[in-house]
Hints:
The protein is an alpha/beta fold and 696 residues long. The protein has 29 helices and 19 strands. The model has no long low-confidence stretch (mean pLDDT 90).
Amino acid sequence: MGAKEVRKTVLNHPITDKITASASPEAIERQQFVPKRIKIFDAKCTQLSEQPQYRFGMNREAKRILPDIINNCVHKVIEKSDASMAQKKAFCKRRHIGVVFSGGPAPGGHNVIAGLFDALTACNPESRLYGFILGSDGLLESRYVEITKELVDAHRNMGGFSMIKTGRTKIDTSEKMNQALKTCQSLNLEGLVVIGGDDSNTNAAFLAQHFTAAGIRVIGVPKTIDGDIQVSSDDGTKLLAVPFGFHSAARAFSQNISSLTSDAASDIKYWHVCKVMGRVASHLALETALQTHVNLVFIGEELAEYVDKERLEKAKQTGEIDYTAYGITLRHLSRIICDAIVRRAAFGKNYGVMVIPEGILESINEIQVFIIKLNKIIADFNTIHDLDFHRSFPTLNEKLDYLRRISKGMLDRNGFPIWNLRDDELFNQLPEFFQAGLLVERDFHGNFQFSQVRTEKIIMDMVTEYLGALKEQGIYKIGIARSYYQSFMASRNLDPDLYAAALFTDPSAVFLLVKPRIISLKTLKQALVSEALLGKDDEIPGPVTEIFRRSEPRFKIQTHFYGYDGRGGDPTGFDCHYSYNLGLTAFHLMAHGATGQMAAIKNLEQSFENWEPIGIPIARLMHLEERKGRLELVMEKSMVDLSSNAFQVYKAMRKKWMAAGPEEDHYRKPGPVRFDGKAEEDRPITLVLNAIDKDA
C-alpha cells in the first residue's frame, strides 16, 4: 500500500475522527453535567420576601441620581404555596428577556445564561431569551442572537464568554441610555440581565433607573475573578461572600503555581515570580497562598497599612513626626524580598516561589502618589483642552516634556504645584519602561492599567541589585549541608574537619556557611594561608575550590503572569453550581417585578442545602470614587480584610511556609480544576476560613 493510500486510510479511520473532533471526551462530559438546583427553584410558584433586617447606608448622591431604586431592600426568593390560579398564570406568562456579558470573562458565565434560560423556558416554553453580541455594543447597536437550547447545551459548564462574546463599552450618557432602551423596546423585552463586575453592576443600576418609566427591569449578576465584589449589611451579615469565577481562576492559577514549586524544588536554581490578577484587591493572591503554600506572598492591603516603627521611634527622639514612615516604599519591599532569599539560601535553598498581586504598585507609597498626580494632570488636560492626552503626546518624551512644562503652573487647591521639581527628580530616576508604564493610557473606567506594567521587573531589578551588594559583603551565600561537605571531602582524600574551621562560620551547624570575608578565590586562599593550611605559593586544593564555588549564589528568576488563562478557563464544581443558581435567581427576581437588584446566593460558605437565593439593592452599595480626575458614583470594591480569619491564618503560617530553615518546603498540591469529584474542594479556602466562628 502506497503512502497516499495509507494516509487516506488513517484519515478516514473512526479513531482519527474521534481524536481530532473539536469536543474532547472531558468537554462532552462537562456539557452533560447537571448542576444542582436550590430546592426553592423546584417549587411550582415562588414569591419575593422583603428582608428589612438587612440594612445599608445611603449615599446622598445615589439617592439623588437613582430615586426610583434607592429604596429597594434585600429580597429573598421563597415558595408561594398558596398561589391562586391567576398568580400561577401570571408567573408562567410568556416573557422576552435580554442578557449581556460585560467586562472580562470569568468561568461560570455560560451557566448563568443556562440557569436563566432553563428557568425562563420551564415557566413557559414560548418565552424567548436574547443575547446581545459583544457586550454593551450589541445592546447599543441592536446586535443580538436568540439563545436556543442547542446553543445553551453546547456551552453548559464551559469557560469563557464565547456564546455571545463580551465587551467593555460603558453606557454612560443619556444618548446611549436611550439607544439601549430603544433596542430593548424593539424586542419587547420585559427585562435585561447584566452579567459583570462592579462597574457593570453600577451600569445596571443606572439602566434600571432609566428604564423604570418604560417598565423594563434590570438585574445584575456579580462576576469577577478578582473576588472584589462582596457584600455585607451594616450589622456585618455576609450576603454575598464571593462573585462567581473567583474560585475557578484561583484554582487554575494555583495548579500552575504548584507546578512551579515542583520545578523550583527539582532544579534548585530559580526563583519563580508569579504576578496574579487583582488590580486593586489581593483576594487572588491570598487564595493562591492558601492553596499552594508558596514561600513568599504579598498582600497589597497589608503593604498599604505598613508603618516603619523604627523610623517613627527615631523621629520621636528628636520630637518630630516622620510622615514618610507611613506606607511601604519600593526600596523597603525589595529588602524584605532579599531577606527571605538570603535566609533560604543559607539553608541550601537558593530557589523558591513568590506571588505578587497585579496591583501591588498601588500599595507602594511613592508610586501611589505618582499615579494620583498623573491621573489628575491627564484628566485636567483632557477637560481643559477637550483633547486626549495620549493622542496629543504619543511618545514618552513628549509626555515627559509636557510634565516639565506644567510643573510650576498647575496648582492644587492649596496653591502648591501638582507636579513639582522633586516629583520630576524622582520620576527621572525611574527606568524608562517604568516611566512609560506610569503614563500608560487609562482604561475605559479611568483606572490605571496595572496589567500593562511589568511590575515584577521593577521589583526584581531592585532585588537583584541589592542581592549583588549583599553578595559582595559576604552576606548572601548558599549553605552547604554538613553531611554532604564531609562525604565530599573524604571521598577526595581531604580531612573535612581540618578545613572546616578555616572555611565556615560554624563548622558544627547542619548547614555550613562560608565565612563572610571569603568572597573570591583570592580571599579563600588568604583564609587558608592564615590558618597554615596552605603556603603562599601553593594552589588551592580542587575540592576546596569546588566547595567554595557551590557556596557562591547565582540569582536567577523566571517571571509569570496569571490572568487571562484563569479568567478563560473552565469553572470548578463550585462555580458550576453557583453560577447556574445565580441565573435561576436572576429570573425569579425579574419575574416578580424586581429591578436594580443584584442576584446573589447567601450562605455560600455552608453546605448546598443551606444556600439562599436573594436580591441585593445595587443603589445602596454605591459611593463616590475618583475616576478620570472627577468623582463618579460607583459600586464600592471589597478589599482583603486584614482582620479576617483567612488573612490571619495566612499571617500565622507564612513564616513556616517560607521554610527559611533546615526543614523541607511545605508546598501544597491543590490538584487540577474539575467540575465533579469526591476529592475536589467544593468552595474557596478563604470562604471556608472566614466562615469559622471566632467566638465558638
